[in-house]
Structure formats: C-alpha cells, structure tokens
Design brief:
Strand order of the largest sheet of chain A: 2-6-4-5
Strand content of chain A: 15-25%
Oligomer: homodimer
Order of helices and strands of chain A: HHEEEEEHEEHHHEHHEEH
DNA sequence: CGGTCTCTTGAGCAGAGTCAATGAACGTGG
DNA sequence: CCACGTTCATTGACTCTGCTCAAGAGACCG
C-alpha cells in the first residue's frame, strides 16, 4: 500500500514527541484532511471564526496576529514548517486571533473532530499534542517578557535568536543563519516597535558585528555575544522535553 | 462514604468544562494529592525545577513570573482560585518560569503522573484539561498584545477589566469590583510599566471616574467606558467555550 | 513608637515614536 | 531590455510617553 507522504510527515512529528505504536500510526493514516496552498498575507484563520479544521504547516511561514481597536497589530507568534498551527480549534469553538501566511505556504487541514478524537483516545498521540501546545504556550510567555521588559536591541536580538534556534532544530542544522521572510514592519509588530526603530536596531546590531544582513537573509556572526546581549536562554523552547 | 471536599471542588471545575461520567468522578476521587498553605510571596514553582506535582489553586491568588538577566521582572499571568496552575508539568519536565503566591493561598498538589494518566485515558477529563490549558494560552496571547501595542492607560485598564470579569465569573457575581491584592510595583510588572507610572495611571483613571480605589479595593465605576478606553474584548477568555 | 513597605508627587531625561523625504529592489507590461 | 509603479528600507529632525531619581507622606506591624 502506498503511504501518503503528508500524513507520514505528521506521524514523524508526533513520533518525535511521544512513542507511538503501529496502531497509532494507522489511526493517523486514516485522518481526513485536505492539502492547501496559501498565498502570502492571506488568512488561514480569522478572529471570531469557528473553524472545523486544524492546520499543520507543511512548508512556508505563518504568523499569528491580533489587532487593537486603534488598528495597531501585534504578532504573537511565528510558525515554521512542521508545526500544528491551531490546536486551539480542537477544543475551543471560536478563534481569538488571526493567522496569516508570511510566505507562500502549504498546509494540511485536518478534520478537527477526528484529530480531537485521537488526542483523547490515543495516549501517545494525546501526549504529543499536549507537548506541542504547551511549548507553544511557553513561547507566548517568553514573548510577554520580551515585549514587556527588554529594550529594543534585546527584543529584536531575542527574536532573531529564537528563530535561529527553532529553524536549526527544524532543519537539523546549526547554521545560525536563515532567510527571514518578514518586512521590518512585521518584525516591529512582533516585538512591539515601529518599523523605523526596527531598522535602526538592525543596523546597530550589524554595526556591532553581531549579525550580518543581505536582503532578508540574516546571519548571526557572534552567537554568544548576541545571545548574551539579548538575554536569550533557550530553556523556554523545551528542546529536550 | 465521606467525600473529600477538595477533590469535589476539582471535580466541579472539570465538570464545568466537559461532561464527566460517574467513573470519571471516581477516578478523580482516587487522585493522590496533598493540600498545602502558601505564604505571600513564597514560591510554588521555580524556573528550572522539575516538579512531579501539578497544583490546583483552592484559595488566594498567585502570579507567574519570569526575570530577565537585568533583574527586571515580568508577570505573565495572574491566577485566581479554581484554576490549575501548572498543567505544563503534566507533559514538560522542566519549569520555564516561577510561580509565587500573591496572598496567603491554599493549593492541592496533585500527583502529576496520576493526573496525566487521567488526562490521556479519560476523554472527558482530557478535554476539560485541554480547555483549561488552551484558555490559558489565549490569555498569554492577549497579554502580548497588551504589553506590545497598548499605551499605559489602556494596559492598566485592560488588566483591571480582565480581572473583574474573571473574578465575577469565578464568584458568580457581577460586581465589577474586587480586592486587588497587588502592589503597584507588581501591577507594573504585569503590564510592563514602572510602579511610578502605574501610580499616575491609576489616579488618572480615577480622575476620569472610570474606577475608584480604596486601598487595594478597585471598583469599576463605568464599565462601558473603561472597556472601550482599554480596548477590552472578552472574547479571548472564551467564556462560552 | 519606631521601622518598613507602599504610595505619591515633582523635576528632568531619554528611548522610542512620528513625520517626511529619499533611495533601493522588484515585478510587470510594452 | 527598459520604463514605470509599488513596496520596502533608510535617514534626519523633532516630539512625547514613560523612565529615573529623589523626597515626603501614609499605612501597617511588632
């Protein structure tokens, strides 16, 4: 029998978090889902919607965002390939935020009821999804700290460190360099600064030889220095959980 | 047979989130736990620790907090009675933050392995705990927005609105008034401001007749006005989920 | 009654925002 | 291949919200 490569990708992700049995794998293989391509900046989820599917990001980047009544935007997380992007919809009916594609992206939209069923009845799958969700929550907490208590240089540096680590883990590399598919305005929305100030901070970081930039390609030149200057401690990513 | 009032409280909480069967209740009634009183400002959980218990807050207030290397503190959530305060420890080994008591508090510390077992094998209990955790994550997201994109007046007002709603729900009241057991310094740590500025903001809100204060008793005088001024929309609390 | 912790208030400062203009990169159609 | 329009990045000048420093007043406690 031919295996569906998309479901196998999802299985690998879940298996990386918990010991899944052959029956667990079989159960995942029967999940109803549909694959979809998303154009940059289009919405995957809108605040107030009641989605019946739960997306898994296969390729591309997304971000999670909320708007204030003043029209200001705050990005509350950035999603990279290989992540479940709305586990919330498994158990909460209404979305409390928006999710948009940053680049062209591919997602597998899994039937929420079916995935919820697996999460509740198959302990290994349940545990894996719990871990995914709880690490996500931990990252939210760190972002509150970032935006609430760090100065502009550390905020931007911290975000770059986080992305470097998460991308290196996801790609099984140790590059500390990556293509950052965000405008400076979006970066500002992620760290609570204006685009003008993000620009000044980025060049200040480059001037201090902590990073180098070429278009939107970011290389961290001095990891230890940037990590220290940005108060970055990867504990909150629970890499060894 | 005599029922343990503490476990019954926990059962009621879980039952408010999902339809639990009599077997589910029986299973909860056999959870190993110990009750403990906590003095103000003492720690329930420390960053880096590997707790084997998961606390449920029976009375009193707690806050969740992280420190930067500069020594700045950011409070990332405030916990009120009736909440599970570290569901993270069910599935993540190491704590990424500190939890401290705000007032004298009572907690039931439940054996994490036993509760995890229930979460994974009893669908109703699992669903209830998922909902608890996901609402917590939603509140983290809103706090990122609060600290990242709102001005000082809105930030403080937003926090007061959130606490008023959560406490009214928990106590089944509609007072819009509550005792806020926090110093202005702690308030500042929750909204990313200095205590001096929190002080000015609080008196400005009082001067605009949005709130009144007597010691640490807060009354919201004009709910609609404060809600609008603070950009508060309770959707993120998922009250009807 | 003294000590300590909070709360208040004022004065001056500075980090980040605003406004505005210029320049570079990129996609598109001719 | 080039002209053009759009989006994004960069820079300067100026402003302002919120911070720092510091001192005094209340509240609470043993």
């Amino acid at each position: 029998m031919q295996l569906d490569p998309i479901l196998e990708t999802i299985i690998r992700r879940i298996a990386s978090r918990a010991r899944v049995s052959e029956e667990d794998r079989t159960a995942i293989r029967s999940l109803p889902y549909s694959a979809r391509a998303i154009e940059p900046s289009s919405y995957l989820v809108r605040e107030g919607a009641q989605p019946s599917r739960c997306a898994f990001l296969l390729s591309g980047f997304c971000y999670r965002q909320k708007l204030t009544s003043e029209g200001a935007r705050q990005i509350v997380s950035i999603e990279i390939p290989g992540e479940f992007i709305d586990l919330h919809h498994l158990f909460l009916t209404e979305s409390d935020h928006n999710v948009q594609a940053l680049t062209r992206a591919h997602v597998a939209e899994i039937d929420a009821a079916a995935l919820r069923e697996l999460a509740l009845t198959r302990p290994a799958i349940g545990a894996a999804l719990w871990i995914e969700a709880l690490i996500g929550a931990s990252i939210f907490r760190e972002w509150i700290v970032n935006v609430g208590r760090r100065d502009a240089h550390s905020r931007v540096g911290h975000l770059l460190c986080e992305l470097a680590v998460r991308l290196d883990i996801a790609n099984d590399t140790t590059n500390r360099a990556f293509d950052l598919p965000m405008t400076q305005e979006q970066l500002g929305d992620a760290v609570g600064l204006t685009p003008v100030h993000v620009n000044r901070v980025l060049r200040a970081l480059a001037a201090r030889n902590l990073i180098s930039r070429d278009r939107r390609q970011i290389s961290i030149l001095d990891w230890d220095a940037l990590r220290d200057a940005s108060d970055f401690n990867p504990r909150y990513l629970h890499l060894t959980a």
